[in-house]
Amino acid sequence: MLTTRGLLQLLFAASLLLRAWHGEAHFQPNMLLIMADDLGIGDLGCYGNNTIRTPNIDRLAREGVRLTQHLAAAPLCTPSRAAFLTGRHSFRSGMDATDGYRALQWNAGSGGLPANETTFARVLRDQGYTTGLIGKWHQGVNCVSRGDFCHHPLGHGFDYFYGMPFTLVNDCHPDRPPEVDGALRAQLWLWTQALAVGVLTLAAGRAWGAVPLPWKAVLGLAALAGLFFLSWYSSFGYVRRWNCLVMRNQAVTEQPMDLERAAGRMLKEAVSFIERNKHRPFLLFVSLLHVHIPLVTTEAFLGRSLHGLYGDNVEEMDWMVGKILDAIEANGLSNSTLTYFTSDHGGHLEARDERGQLGGWNGIYRGGKGMGGWEGGIRVPGIFRWPGVLPAGRVVDEPTSLMDVFPTVVQLGGGQVPQDRVIDGHNLLSLLQGSSQHSAHEFLFHYCGKHLHAARWHQKESGRLWKVHYMTPKFHPEGTGGCYGQGVCPCSGPGVTVHSPPLLFDLSQDPSETHPLTPSSEPLHDEVLARVDKAVKAHLRTVSPVPQQFSAGHIMWKPWLQPCCGTFPFCSCTEDGREDVGVTPQGSAL
User: What is the pLDDT of residues 455-473, one digit of tens each?
Assistant: First the structure.
């Protein structure tokens, strides 16, 4: 029997949904979008982990809707986030690899999210929202000159930005081994040393009369060695200073960044944004620096988990999420705020050092970060909460995508999805609310760079979920780990197996992708492959060539594009004031 309170909640939900669907300007829910970095789906209690404590994210799941088949559009940071922001596969904007580099490498590269791409922030700002991004961007900064900010968050619809224009890497920590272009850096340094030894040897031989070489030639080689050294040092010798910096809007406020204070500052900024904008509709994208290596964790959380530094970092992240949710509640915004939590892709299997594993756990799912086809690389947490509108405790097993967030928040905010381009996402509201039983996605396509690695078909009539693999990375060891020694697995080449005929799995029966089907074990084998092949061909007809943002010319470090506080190349500054902004488990960011 429906109680009076239940009836009121139902009427309230119906009113909100009707207003949202009709785009009435006087009703615009707040949007709080929280994205972790490199978090494995198996790292959270609400997704089956019973050894890492994540009470705040688990509470979010209990009070909202939990998606069990939520999928990243790409298995690496930059392309996944480009797809999330625009609702489109990243290759449609040139934000994925054609071959070679698979993510942006420098703040001073010229590649990035093109200005003609439309983000959900831009649409909602046009609808009167105040929009903010706190944390990681990793979508580029400048195009032609330092200060044109063509790829900057403020050029893509955000009114306010505080955080890293790049991403955390080992280079940000002075005690960790180099990560950005590590192999090239080592090779350049070797060449530099070889040239220096060669020049010294020739100079000594010339001085002793043993080498009949003019001094001008010796000096020319010395100049070349000096040029190699300056090239190495000015770029690679300063990676921490060039990439690990903090910006407020378009100004660099700390260079290099203070890693130990970063978490507290990001939390303080997120809470402040909520408090400043509680009387008007806002969109806040909290793009967490956790749990990417080098796993910078404050002292209050070190040694608290059962899983070393990685577990400590996850538990600190959960605590931060809790403090942001507390700010929503303390400002009376719970019932007027759609909150969403996810990760940009699967856990990083190859992240390890002498202490052991430094990457996440992807639960029962095979593979991890960098792998475009296997579930472990692309299946991520997906939690939505909106009290009074979305049913608490609902679990949705249908296929959904990070790209679905774009049309969902755009239409809830009263905006329109662009009609002049392909949008790959679908509005999730009816699925989340329960009025639709099936996802709008019949087929989903899983890329690794430009290469289509896999496709899935949700056969709604039977409930079966087919997965077809065209290429798979070679594991070391096979099936349990990653591509150790390579950073992440490759998309093509000798590190990838091309399958002809393709591998076929039934994820509804075999979510771990351990038992490939054959014509003898599955009567529908050939029929399924034919149907998916037809869908792939139709999908490929929607793909058009675009300028590539990860080309060598765009990726390379360009000193004239380098964000800098002070005088280049002596870029150095700290945040104004040195007040304590640390975090404690019992308190909040000060």
Answer: 999 999 899 999 999 999 9
What is the layout of strands, in order, in the sheet containing 464-473? Answer: 443-448, 451-459, 464-473, 496-506
What is the reported pLDDT for 183? 57
Q: Choose the final residue of a domain: 441, 459, 476.
A: 441
Give 213-241 pLDDT, tens digit per residue. Answer: 777 776 777 776 666 565 555 555 688 88
Q: What are phi and psi of 40, to 5 degrees?
A: -80, 145
- Helix, strand, or coil here: 21? helix
| Distance separating alpha carbons of residues 500 and 513, to the nearest angstrom | 17
Higher pLDDT: 537 or 578? It is 537
Q: Is residue 91 part of a domain?
A: yes
158: left (phi over 0), alpha (psi -120 to 50) or beta: beta
**Can you give the residue range of the structural domain that contains 254?**
27-168+244-441
The pTM assigned to this predicted structure is 0.89
Structure-block tokens of residue 345: 């892709």
Do residues 161 and 206 both lie within one domain? no
Q: b/e per residue, 228-247, with b = 16+ CB within 10 A?
A: bbeebeebbebbbbbbbbbb
Q: If we measure between CA atoms, which residue out of 384, 393, 531, 538 comes closest to residue 464?
A: 531
- Amino acid identity at 401: S
- Tell me: do 197 and 143 sit in the same domain: no
Specify which residues 400 forms β-bridges with.
70
The reply to whether 260 and 226 lie within a common domain is no
One domain for residues 228 and 130: no
The domain total for the chain is 2
pLDDT at residue 537 is higher than 60: yes
Tell me, what amino acid is at 389? V
Residue 156 falls inside a structural domain: yes
111 and 249 in a single domain? The answer is: yes
Q: Tell me the two tokens of residue 278.
A: 């509680």
Q: What is the mean pLDDT of residues 379-402?
A: 98
Instruction: State the Cα–Cα distance between residues 550 and 468, nearest whole angstrom.
Output: 28
pLDDT digits (tens, 9 = 90+) for 164-217: 999 999 889 887 766 665 555 555 656 566 766 776 777 777 677 776 777 777
Residues identified as active-site: 77, 138
Whether residue 17 has pLDDT greater than 80: no
**pLDDT tens-place string over residues 340-378:** 999 999 999 999 887 778 999 999 999 999 999 999 999
Q: Which secondary structure element, helix H or strand E, spans residue 51, and what is its range?
A: none
Q: Helix H segments across 414-504? A: 429-433
| CA gyration radius, the chain | 25
Q: What is the DSSP letter of 391?
A: P
What six digits make up the tokens of 179?
Answer: 């990560």
Q: What residues contact residue 19 under an 8 Å CB cut-off, 6+ apart?
A: 26, 27
- Asked if residues 331 and 323 have their Cβ atoms less than 8 Å apart, the reply is no
Q: Concatenated DSSP letters for 329-345? A: HHTT-GGGEEEEEEESS
d(CA 37, CA 360): 10
Look at the block and give the residue holding tokens 């594009």: 561
In a domain, 136, yes or no: yes
Q: Report residue 59 as tokens.
A: 């509470």
**Residue among 337, 296, 314, 270 nearest 132 (CA):** 270
Same domain assignment for residues 142 and 220: no
Which pair of tokens denotes residue 175? 């005690």
Token couple for 321: 């999420």
Give the amino acid at 412.
Answer: L
